[in-house]
Amino acid sequence: MNHPKLKEYTLVEQLEYIDLYSNPSSDTLIARFKESTVVSEKMAKESLDLVLRKIKNHTTYGITDLSAKSIDFTNEAKNCYRKNMDKEGVTLNAVVVKDVALKIIANTYARFDRPRIPTRVFTSLANAERWIAEAKP
Question: Long-range contacts of range 125-129, CB-CB < 8 Å, 24 or more positions apart?
Fold first, then answer.
């Protein structure tokens, strides 16, 4: 699945399994995982390092786009993201999934996992962007 082009965002980094976009004010990053990706611990560390390099020392809002087909994370990758998410300087995180069923599953997982930063799950990028815009101080 090729994601539609993001009009207001600039592609700032591209890896085999993820594209990273930034908005004009550089305060929101979108991490778009590519179709048929199984994210390993090594990939999780690499993408976290990439995000850290991009955000430097300013407030950042994150959108994790998981709406492509067949994206999966190893348990080690999930643990890596869980342990390091708040260290990366992201103050809000929106997660975009492809349908309502996955949204329910993701919300249930988040409820038990208790992310360290405010996180919400959406089925559209536009709704995720709207939530972040409204939640910004």
Answer: 125/6, 125/30, 125/63, 125/65, 125/67, 125/96, 128/63, 128/94, 128/95, 128/96, 129/28, 129/63, 129/94
pTM: 0.83
Q: What is the mean pLDDT of the chain?
A: 83
Query: Cβ(21)–Cβ(6) under 8 Å?
Result: yes
- Whether 113 is covered by a domain: the verdict is yes
Range of the domain at 47: 10-128
Dump pLDDT digits (tens) for 67-95: 888 888 899 998 888 777 666 567 888 88
Q: What is the pLDDT of residues 99-111, one digit of tens each?
A: 898 888 887 877 7
How far apart, in whole angstroms, are the C-alpha atoms of residue 16 and residue 98?
21
The tally of domains found in the chain comes to 1
Map tokens 């594209």 to a residue.
Answer: 19
